[in-house]
Amino acid sequence: MVSIRCKMIVRSELDKLGLHYTRVELGEVNVKEKITPEQLVQFKAGLLKSGLELMDDKKAILIERIKNVIVEMVHYEDEVPKVNFSDYLSGKLKYDYTYLANLFSEVTGTTIEQYIISHKIERVKELLIYDELSLTEISYRLNYSSVAHLSNQFRKVTGLTPTFFKNLKHKKRSTLENV
Length: 179
Hints:
Layout: H1 4-16, E1 21-25, E2 28-31, H2 37-49, H3 58-76, H4 85-93, H5 97-108, H6 112-130, H7 135-141, H8 147-158, H9 162-167
Antiparallel strand pairs: 1-2
Helix pairs in contact: 3-5, 3-6, 6-8
């Protein structure tokens, strides 16, 4: 689950089944009572109608948790934490980073670093479109070492300079689900 809309759908489906929950977070739900097999089938069906899928594979769940931590860090924090991403993920998820990185690459076919870069570039696009921050402020907010580093990474991913992108009439961003 990547969006607030997804969380609302999950809450709604749980409410329909009369299930009480303590937490509905991105990719994770804590239900107070034991779910019967019938309720589980109904819950899965309700989610599928809305285009969502219940994951019960432990590896898939951990991959979603990795993705959710990255999305929250890049898109919903005021500033990207000024720590090493590997330390940040390990601390948040309580797993060794090497294990997380190997699992992520094995399952998704891309590295955690590439996934982070993709999301950071989408965030740069968003901030450029809003046109409230300078490139220097954006690079600081997203923890780039310099504006040049941000510009080079942006150009590698998009084929455009940030300034050229900013001046485009039809700016193209990807939805978070498609990054």
